[in-house]
Amino acid sequence: MSGGPAVRVSMESQCERQVQEVSLDGLETYVPPLSMSQNLAKLAQRIDFDQSSDSEQESREPWSALKFQPSLWPWDSVRNNLRSALTEMCVLHDVLSVLKDKKYMALDPVSQDPSTPQVFQLISKKKSLATAAQLLLKGAEKLTKSLAENQEQRRQRDFNSELLRLRSQWKLRKVGHKILGDLSYRSAGSLFPHHGTFEVIKNTDIDLDKKVPDNYCPLNVQIPSDLEGSAYIKVSIQKQSADIGDLGTVSLFRRQPKAKPGSQMWHLKLEAAQNVLLCKEIFAQLSREAVQIKSQIPHIVVKNQIISQPFPGLQLSISLCHSTGEKKIQRASPDKSKPDDHLYVLEHNLHQLIREFHKQTLSSVVMPHPASSPFGHKRLRLAGPMAYDKAEISSLQQSEGLLEKIIKQAKHIFLRSRSIQLQLNIGVEQIRVVHRDGRVITLSHQEQELQDFLLSQMSQHQVHAVQQLAKVMGWHVLSFSNHVGLGPIESIGNASAITVASPSGEHAISVRNGPESGCKVLVQFPRSQAKELLKSDVLQEGRWTHLRGPYREVHWGRMEGRNFVYKMELLMAALTPCP
């Protein structure tokens, strides 16, 4: 081939770069080539510096053989030590020769003062400690910031959850940066002018990193000062009127209820404030009606007390008792505790009546309808066929107020307390009857047994009424028995009987009342007025004529009077001679 012409051959690598991605249209994307520095770094990564070269291994093999070859004669260790000492002396000789010329190396004397290196050590230690302290301070500052952020986030998270719970129970609104709530009953129809606004604030007085108390709440409420504490309306009925100069100083307080486990303090605080607001609204309404209503005996309003007289000699007292918890005024001494004459039923009725008043304010049924047509011209208003006339509108406006209703209820309670003779305690399987004298009777669940007992008590009540009426009319009670052993036997209970005599002793009335036989009234007249009596040969003297004769039955159904007591009063009045 040496005689032929030279031929140039071009050679190139099959693929210099690798394919990185092939798109959907068949276009190939290659990996860019490495630069010289990247290629050098790639080649350097392939070198294993732990492995030595073959020449080094070959040079080390004789020494390693000598190192691990056992001693051939006893002076071998001495020879090795002498060789190492000779090597060190040669090195020392070379160093001294260099130092002698003072060209490349020089000797510096060592200071003998020991304080200088200690100062340097203290300075270096101080710098090291300062650096370490700076690092620790930076780390502590970062930890403090992190803890503060976590605590603020936790407090904000708890506040938001508690605020959501508060919002589900009370009416809230946001005014600027403040969160305000509403305690009033305006949405329920109240017309009381008090705003009843409270503010919701965040409780930041407790560190959450420390031990949190059980009653901790991240939310707190701030209520108006005049709604703090507790209040209630005290209603009492007294027979003796108090001195007017002492009125208005009623200061009877109840203990505030303790927080139940699981209940929020703000909930109890808001409920107490709303109750104070409602009590003030009730008392303001009663005071306004007491001034406006015209009655024969005017009502008295002094400070926090309203005095009314439903009956002559009877006093109805309505007082607003408000305690703020700061100080308590006690009129009575602690040794002499007065019994509680508060009528809780009337207090409950006042709350019910004010809620009905709120409902009527919102309701459109009780409001006057001027016309069935829309508001406009007067003729259009008068043309409505369903329009209210003047009488209907006046009847709607003439409704009883709270004071008139509560006075009627007080009258009813007083009249009922005068005629009640027993108390029924209805249980689950039995009924206990407590009499006024303390006797207790237990009845079963049978309805007939209770009915028979009430009939027996009604018959005895009429006989007791005759006894009380005789004392009022001046008649004398000759005999009285709740269980009469004479006469027909009653299938239900026993019959009662009483005999009374007139003040002069000439007439007598005997009453026998049974649950089944009914009432039977007999009248005994003097012997002188008895025409059917025959003259006796034995009783010849005139003094015997003053004795009473036989009994005559009274046709009780024909007597005048609305009830048994009125009829008996007319009978006694007819048999009592005029003075």
UniProtKB/TrEMBL annotation:
Cellular component GO terms, alphabetical: core mediator complex; mediator complex
Family: Belongs to the Mediator complex subunit 17 family.
GO biological process: regulation of transcription by RNA polymerase II
Self-association state and partner proteins as the record states: Component of the Mediator complex.
Alphabetic keyword roster: Activator, Nucleus, Transcription, Transcription regulation
Pfam families, sorted: Med17 (PF10156)
Cell compartment(s), UniProt: Nucleus
Coiled coil: none
Protein's name according to its UniProt entry: Mediator of RNA polymerase II transcription subunit 17
Function noted in UniProt: Component of the Mediator complex, a coactivator involved in the regulated transcription of nearly all RNA polymerase II-dependent genes. Mediator functions as a bridge to convey information from gene-specific regulatory proteins to the basal RNA polymerase II transcription machinery. Mediator is recruited to promoters by direct interactions with regulatory proteins and serves as a scaffold for the assembly of a functional preinitiation complex with RNA polymerase II and the general transcription factors.
GO MF annotation terms: transcription coregulator activity
InterPro entries on file: Mediator_Med17 (IPR019313)
